[in-house]
Amino acid sequence: MAGPVVGGPHGPYRQSERTDLYRSHANDLISNGHAYRCFCPPERLDAMAQHRSQAGLAPGYDRKCGELSAEESEDRAASGETHIIRLKVEGYPMFNDLVYGKTGQNKPNNKKLDFIDRVYDDPILIKSDGHPTYHLANVVDDHCMKITHVIRGTEWMPSTPMHMALYNAFKWTPPQFGHVPLLVDQSGQKLSKRNADIDLSSFKDKQGVFASTLVNFASLLGWSHSQKSDVLSLQELEQIFNLKITRGNTVVAFEKLWFLQKAHAQRFAASGGPEFDEMVNRVSSVVTEKYPLEKLNTILKGRTIAEYVAPLIRADAKSYTDASEFVQRNSTFFTPKLEREPYAPASPSALEVPMSALHTAAAALTLVPSSHWSIETHRFNINSYDGSSSVVLPEAESDSQTSPATDKIFKKELYHYLRWALSGSAPGPGIPETMTILGRDETLRRVQDAKASTQTFGPSDGRRIPKGALPEDQSWMGTLATKR
């Protein structure tokens, strides 16, 4: 890497420190006849420009000073007479663009006649204050810094023939040029770097967007690929990226940015590494700022905030956009006292599950000892729990409902009840993951608190399916199964 701060082999890297280099190269062009000093006062140039504008003609210069002898030009410059330096262009060549193919104006510059005068497109290289124009500085810098490819917006395409003319005048091999589409919003207006809403540092520093997400998002603007997924790391992009860019403006849809952010969050959560550690640190910082540690200690039970946050991120990475939003979404994990709405069944219908059956199932699930308190155990126990016999059926339907159907009804209601009991019905990780993150003590406390809040629920109407004997196979209970 090279630049104004770190330096490099082609420095200095600040344009203000390279003025002598630009003047030297401009003087070389004067010496070989490809440039000349123009001593015309601003008043003359302004009058000429105004005259042509009123006549509806394109701007141009009559090359009055181009005919001065080298001796007169040197003497007038040496005496301190104000002047500019112009490129003496004989023609603007076509060029091969990496995106658009062969393009340009391919027009001569020495026969531009109209009914007023002969004029020329001789661009200014050095201004009257001695500083270069962008066109000269850009070409000199790219050549001296050994730039091989210039990839820039299509608004620079009209200037590229001028730059090619400069390369020809210097007898330098030009870099390859590729002009990419402009980025516009939904209304077709060009995005501006002056707008902080599209500033990359703003996305990264203020909105917490990963560098990987920004690279991935930017690479897809105006470019498509043959991969199955748009979620690509920098290493993957290095392997497949090419300049088969769409011609024409590209509408920027920031919804895609947040889709990619969630996808990369899932990648980091699955693979770990420094990116995941950074996510944990950011979320932990937000938690520390927002929640008093003395209240969190009742949930943490000796764990550090980072140790508590890490599995939560892994369980809900699919929803991660930034640390603050993540903590807000999962606030119930940091709140000892839940504010629950009154419990309402998942789908009120003729098929109902008694509250006592939900209490029993929830209590049974919390009997797992801390040594076996894991996502796998909870998932197995919940999936294996057979609550079909507790489902209350209307008399007319009791004979037609099969055990799998009623078990499905029970499972749906149990999941619904557990989410209400453990997180106040807030969206978030699955129930097995939630139980594991909260830990046994906090899960048990919330289940007991939820039971106390629903003790007044009366029995459902209808005829209960007779409960059969417990099966000999108690494997559904996981570590709760009776040891035989």
TrEMBL record:
Aminoacyl-tRNA synthetase class I anticodon-binding domain ranges (all copies): 411-450
Gene3D superfamilies registered for this protein in UniProt: 1.10.10.350, HUPs
Residue ranges annotated for the Glutamyl/glutaminyl-tRNA synthetase class Ib catalytic domain, each copy included: 10-246
UniProt-listed Pfam families: Anticodon_2, tRNA-synt_1c
GO terms under cellular component: mitochondrion
Stretches for region Disordered: 449-484
Keywords for the protein's UniProt record, in alphabetical order: Aminoacyl-tRNA synthetase, ATP-binding, Ligase, Nucleotide-binding, Protein biosynthesis
Record-linked InterPro entries: aa-tRNA-synth_I_cd-bd (IPR045462), aa-tRNA-synth_I_codon-bd_sub2 (IPR020751), aa_tRNA-synth_I_cd-bd_sf (IPR008925), Glu/Gln-tRNA-synth_Ib_cat-dom (IPR020058), GluQ/Sye (IPR049940), Rossmann-like_a/b/a_fold (IPR014729)
Example GO biological process: glutamyl-tRNA aminoacylation
Presence of the UniProt keyword DNA damage in the record: no
SUPFAM superfamilies referenced in this protein's UniProt entry, alphabetically: An anticodon-binding domain of class I aminoacyl-tRNA synthetases (SSF48163), Nucleotidylyl transferase (SSF52374)
Keyword Ribonucleoprotein: no
One function term, GO molecular function aspect: glutamate-tRNA ligase activity
Sequence similarity: Belongs to the class-I aminoacyl-tRNA synthetase family. Glutamate--tRNA ligase type 1 subfamily.
Protein's UniProt name: Glutamyl-tRNA synthetase
